[in-house]
Write a structure and sequence with these properties.
Its main location: membrane. Keywords: Membrane, Nitrate assimilation, Transmembrane, Transmembrane helix. InterPro entries: MFS, MFS_dom, MFS_trans_sf, NO3_transporter. It is a multi-pass membrane protein. The structure is a single chain. By secondary structure, the protein is mainly α. It has one domain: Growth Hormone, Chain: A. It has 17 helices and 2 strands. Strands 1-2 form a two-stranded parallel sheet. α4 packs antiparallel against α9. It starts with a strand and ends in an 11-residue tail after the last helix.
Length: 437
């Protein structure tokens, strides 16, 4: 089986050749430098970024009432998604040029500023602007994945990327628990909901600054240390090159189509919001309880994405790249099936939660399995590749939002349509060809 261990281990011998010093096993409880420490800083930073990125979503009812908004509150989601699309591409290219440490630190510090200033907005235009600039935090996905891809060999990189991405995405569910609790705590002292949500936004901003500092003091760009001080000549060419070779462009285009469809129901914050909106009126729940149930989807990231990555690595060990692609296909297929089942059978709270657990597992597992494929597309410019793939995922999320905007009064139908699309797109896996694999 794949060498993923729940124990500490002595750090591997490090020299200046980053290929030779990549770890061939993943020790989840190791904080040794550089591999273990950077792994934990990577996922933790991505998780904290979510607290700022999604901070507004659980507070929307109070913001909507305070600013007297209607459809504008939903429109603001588009601005957030647009920013993430732009900044993920920029982050990817930047990682290739200066390394992940500088990029993720800059993103966290930059995202903390509009998060803290969100409490100053007083109209829809202000909300649009703030959500756009907060969207920079969504780009932390790219350096998070770049970190782990540089630290781990390909026999275990799928698992490493999936654990980092999965544990990082816990931030989506965590935010839906954290922000209502912060709001309630402040409101109990202030006694003013309009002031309370504004003050609450300072907390995630502070967390983002702390995460940025952790990167400065505890993370490494790659096993050899500083990205800018590494050897300028790599086996596969210049790592700063940002052009994508024509053959790899075709691979990336095909993979982006699949990843965007896979990512539709992966938009943790939006889906958590939808599940809350579905559970509250249908099962007579209070808003806070609905948030907690919806947060189950985000919290499934603790193990579901990692499982997808581990299965991908295991299949690769047995039959090579075909195994990774087959794993991707099967997980996406079951994801689509359970989304359809949810749309037709979520008639009681028990059935809704049970089915939600299943489609959550396969949705997040599909993301995990994709992390095992991406590093093979064009290794010398993996940052650019990760940025473009992440952008494809965000576009999928925007399409997903549009489907549910159309079916806002019939949420189950939205799940059925999304499930049908995901099921169909799963078969595009057989059209993917990864050169030299």
């Amino acid at each position: 089986m794949i060498d993923v261990k729940l124990k500490t281990s002595p750090p591997p011998t490090v020299d200046e050749n980053d290929r030779k010093t990549k770890a061939k096993s993943l020790h989840l409880l190791s904080f040794s430098k550089p591999h273990g420490r950077t792994f934990h800083v990577a996922w933790f930073s991505f998780m904290i970024a979510f607290t700022g990125w999604y901070a507004i979503a659980p507070l929307k009812p109070y913001i909507k009432s305070d600013l007297k908004l209607t459809s504008e509150i939903a429109t603001s989601d588009i601005f957030s998604g647009l920013a993430t699309i732009i900044f993920r591409v920029v982050a990817g290219v930047s990682c290739d040029l200066v390394g992940p440490k500088r990029v993720i630190t800059a993103l966290l510090f930059a995202g903390a500023i509009p998060t803290a200033l969100a409490g100053l907005i007083n109209n829809a235009d202000g909300l649009y602007a703030i959500r756009f600039f907060i969207g920079v935090l969504g780009a932390t996905f790219v350096p998070c994945q770049f970190y782990t891809t540089q630290m781990y060999e390909k026999n275990v990189v799928g698992s490493a990327n999936a654990f980092a991405g999965g544990w990082g995405n816990l931030g989506g569910g965590l935010t839906y628990i954290l922000m209502p609790l912060v709001f309630d705590g402040i409101n109990s002292s202030v006694g003013n909901t309009n002031a309370s949500w504004r003050i609450a936004m300072i907390i995630p901003a502070g967390l983002c600054i702390i995460a940025g500092l952790l990167n400065i003091f505890f993370a490494d760009d790659y096993p050899g240390g500083d990205w800018l001080k590494r050897s300028k000549t790599l086996e596969n060419g210049n790592a700063g090159v940002v052009e994508i070779h024509e053959a790899n462009e075709k691979k990336l285009d095909g993979y982006n189509v699949e990843h965007s469809e896979q990512d539709k129901p992966k938009k943790t914050g939006k889906l958590t919001e939808l599940l809350s909106a579905f559970c509250n009126p249908n099962f007579g729940l209070k808003a806070t309880n609905g948030n907690f149930i919806g947060a189950v989807f985000g919290l499934m990231n603790f193990f579901s994405r990692a499982t997808g990555g581990i299965l991908s690595d295991y299949a690769n060990k047995k039959i090579g790249m075909r195994g990774r692609l087959l794993t991707q296909f099967l997980i996406l297929l079951f994801e689509g099936i359970f989304l359809i089942i949810f749309g037709f059978n979520a008639e009681t709270m028990t059935s809704a939660i049970v089915i939600m657990i299943f489609f959550s597992f396969f949705t997040q597992g599909g993301c995990g399995s994709s992390y095992g494929i991406a590093p093979y597309i064009d290794p010398p410019i993996y940052g650019t590749v990760a940025g473009l793939i992440g952008t494809g995922g965000t576009i999928g999320g925007i399409v997903f939002n549009s489907v549910f905007a159309r079916y806002s009064t019939a949420i189950p139908q939205g799940f059925v349509i999304t499930g049908i699309v995901v099921t169909c797109v799963s078969f595009t896996t057989f059209l993917l060809k990864v050169t030299d694999q």
